Amino acid sequence: MNIDVVAALVMGLAGSGHCLAMCGGLAAAMGYQRSPMRLFWYNLGRIISYAIAGFIVAAAFFSISKVHANGLVYLRILAGIMMVLLGLYLFRWNRALLWLEKAGSYLWRYIQPLTQKLPAQKTSGYVFLAGMLWGWLPCGLVYSALTWAALSGDPFSGAGFMLLFGLGTFPAMFLTGVFSQKLATVLQSSSFRWIAGLLLIGYGIATLFIAAKQL
Amino acid sequence: MSQVDVSMSKPEATLANEKEACFHCQQPVPAGFSLHVEVLGHARPMCCYGCHSVATTIVEQGLTHFYKYRETKPGELPLIPEELANLEDDLVRYDDPDIQREFVAANANIQTATLAIEGMTCAACAWLIERQLHHLNGVKKVVVNASTERVQVSWDAESTRLSQVLRAIHQVGYKALPFQQADLEASYDRKRRGYIRRLGVAGIASMQTMMVAFGLYFDDIDDTTRLYFWWVSLLFTAPVIVYSCQPFFANAIRALKARTLNMDVPVALAMVIAFIASFYATVTDTGDVYYECVTMFAFFLLAGRFLEMQARHKAVANAANLMKLIPAIAERQTTDGWEQVMVKYLETGDVIRVRPGDTIPVDGELLDANAWCDEALLTGESRPVAKSQFETLYAGSINQDHPITLRIVATRQDTLLAGIIALQDSALEAKPKFVRFADVVSRYFVAATLIISTLTLVSWYFIDPSKAFWVTLAVLVATCPCALSLAAPTAMSGAISRLNRAGILMKQSALLESLPKIKTLCVDKTGTLTKGKFSIIRSQYNSDHEELLLMKIAAGLESYSEHPLARPFQRLAKAADVTNARNIPGSGISGVVDGTEYRIGSLSFIKQWHPEFKNALAPANVFLASKDKILAEWQVDDEIRDDAEETIAWYKSRGVEVIMLTGDSNLRAHTLAQQLGITDIRAQLKPEDKLKAVRKLQEISPVLMVGDGLNDGPVLAAANGSVTFSSGSDLAKSSSDVVILTGKLAGLRRLYETSLLTRNVIRQNFTWAIGYNLVILPLAVTGQVGPLWAMLGMSMSSLIVMTNSLRLMRNAR
To answer: Which residues form a coiled coil (chain A) (predicted)?
Structure first.
């Protein structure tokens, strides 16, 4: 139990307004919104992909902490910056993370053709696979969460962090499909974004503060 | 990829770009960013690479119809929905007679309407509204029903107007509008959405505050981080206090205004105190915070209220659904043919036409020779019923056969169907003893809670001031009698819903409470144990003659009689031609068929021809004879209901004494009683004798009377509980507590079983609720239970009571 768990969930939750508009629209277009089961499988696939990404990134940065004693502290500073950027992003200052998304869209070019091979809406298995592929969409929110996963120390807690982040986005993505559009308007309302953004920036600054003291 | 044009041109930084919204997610496109996807023939702006990828894929997979049909919402919505804003101005509209005709019943100058009230939650609200309306000049009668959230109000049209009544209710803080079945669904939906929104806010906040609280419980965190976490929790808890908890505060304030107490008083108090203390701690960086308690308390309480509301809705939904089936448009006869007209504009005396398969919109008398109707909606009987000319057809029944014309006798609120619905509603109105008991007990409980909390605070202040606050908070939360006040009403709603679905209408829900105590069941014979329709039970024909010929003669002769005993003969065979027919009332018919004179009728009538005749068929009561000999003997009697024997045996097996009270002759009554296994028979009773008999029986034990609604009125009123079998127009007039619409005696058994079940459920609920409160109280007072656990325990207790009551709704059939 530590702060990072809370941070992961908050990041997911705070960002879920964005998730709704972007991925929710996709899910709606694909017709997943029509049944709670499909929506569930789609989102599960998406979250699993996040966890895999978390595992990979954390594994890659695992070595850094071995090589350089202060490596993790620098990473923590990076993560703090990312957190602040994410907060700004929620304030509608989208530019903050666009460069990251752009980087991600190169990766997406390789994955996107795969999505076309899947039948549009078939069994839960296909929906799950589709969710896994869509999990790699270029998304600033995911990337900033990944920087946190990177500094978690070992690959498994990296995967765990991303899993929690995914879970944070889950209620909004899932519940709006099942209950009502109203929740979406709450999550997208400026007041909510404002609070969430402020919160994330606060987290980010706190992290930077702690990391700076450790240097 | 050929038809997709993905342009990724370099940004041309224009000011216009800034206001542009992303075509996919509808959020603003950042200034100077330009990325487009061609969708539906235009290059559409995108806000980020993610949206760009998604939009491209959607286009490539040919799913662009999504963009065409999706709902585009305005981007900015305030968190708090606008309420009551323009309501005042709309009220005057309700004074328009044209609008009023749909929901106001007028009797001379006194007008009566049912109003739906929003925001009413408890007995205190009912009291407040009642008092407010009684102050209004011209208001004659006010009946407030807290469980259905309706007010029935009568006013003098000369001294006040409906809009003034509505305004008076608004002034005390409730929303009142004319009640219409169609609106019920809409207002329920609105309420449900409101609850979900509040639940959503409380749910998200409680998740966050819990996570933070766990972090604070288990980790060694430096003071800066801890303080930061406190502020985070404060940010999340604030919307819960301001928005989610608003119903609790509103109720508590209303109760205090009415100078009474309800369970929301300690709830609101606990939340406000906990929040203010936490807020103070956060600002000054001292003491403890209870944010997670506040948010989770709100979440669980809201969840409980939400479930209760759904249960209550189910109980009234049955009735409301009936009204939905009435069509909105009818065909009315005018001087130049037929015209389409709204059903609400139909008047008594109009002639309308109903096509086969259509639902009859009003009550009316049949102008055609005959018709077949499916009255399943009214009686639960799915077999079509034959109707002959000038018989009344009821709104809600379905015309089965050919187009028919009707002359309207009752419209809208006056139809039988509306009557049934009103009955179902009013069943929830009367408060049975155990509901009143719970009201009173929970009021005292609340008072006790507040006193004990104060004492706890004072004592702990002397023992250990550092603990005084949270112990008091725990006491306040743990002892809140939420479960107690839910115990009876939820069970009653469940039971009434269960019975309604089985075609049993409760006019007095109090009967559910008294039924298990009843040890004597009195039944009327005709129309109760029997169907009230005469038919030929047994027959014996003279073997020297052809049976069919005798039947034809009997049918021919009886066609001259109006007596109910003659009816089954008229259907027996094709009537023979009869000449010189004479009807001798009280005796029979005589007439000539093919030159021979015959008589059909009672034993004494036949004995005039054959003085020494003794009937071969012992219970026979109709005979056919010529001057020479007896030709046929019939036993014509009321048909026994199929399930009569079974039901009576069941009641006897429960130790209930079954007594038959009838005005019929001794012999007939005994024959029937023997068949059914009834040993105690009181025959040849006049209505006043029946009344005396019931009074006498009541001296020993309470009596349940089952009888015919019209003739047995006084007896039914005198008995401790009364049941009638009704169909048709006598329904609303009957003076019984329960009406069984299905015409099946087995309904009596279901009624009894349900009342036993309800009593058990209520006892379990009370035992649990009181027991829990008594156990938790000493624990909380002594500081063994923290606020969080107290809150979880209280919520669980309420949910257990709710779930237990909901069992009544299951397996209704």
So the answer is: none
Number of structural domains (chain A) is: 1
Q: Are residues B229 and B168 in the same domain?
A: no
What tens digit of pLDDT does each residue of B631-651 get? Answer: 888 888 777 888 888 888 888
Positive/negative CA dihedral, B213, B215, B221, B226: negative
**Does B327 reside within a domain?**
no
Q: Is the CB of A195 less than 8 angstroms away from the CB of B235? A: yes
Nearest CA in chain A to B230: A199
Q: Is residue B442 located within the same domain as residue B570?
A: no
CB-CB under 8 Å, A23 with B225: no
Residue B292 sits in the same domain as residue B266: yes
Q: What is the DSSP string of B410-428?
A: E-GGGSHHHHHHHHHHHHT
Domain containing residue B25? 6-69
Q: Which of B50, B221, B224 is nearest residue A138 as measured by Cβ atoms?
A: B50
Picking from B184, B112, B181, the residue whose alpha carbon sits closest to that of residue B328 is: B181
- The set of residues, in sequence order, having a beta carbon less than 8 Å from that of B173 and lying 6+ positions away, is B119, B250, B254
Q: Which residues of A touch B208 (CB under 8 A)?
A: 6, 9-10, 13
pLDDT digits (tens, 9 = 90+) for B336-366: 888 888 777 788 888 998 888 788 888 888 8
CA-wise closest residue to B718 among B699, B743, B731? B699
Total length of chain B: 813
pLDDT, residue B85, reads: 40
Residue type (1 letter), B400 = Q
Judge whether B781 and B475 are in contact, CB under 8 Å. yes
State yes or no: ipTM above 0.95: no
Residue spans of alpha helices (H) in B136-239: 162-171, 181-218, 223-239
Alpha-carbon distances of B720 from A127, B47, B703, B704, rounded to whole Å: 63, 74, 5, 6
Looking up residue B133, the CATH number of its domain turns out to be 3.30.70.100
Total domains in chain B come to 6
Residues of A in contact with B219 (CB under 8 A): 1-3
Q: Strands B104-107 and B337-342: what pairing?
A: unpaired
| Residues of chain B below pLDDT 50 | 1-18, 73-87, 728-729, 732, 813
Q: Are residues B574 and B608 in the same domain?
A: yes
Pair B707, B528: CB distance under 8 Å:
yes
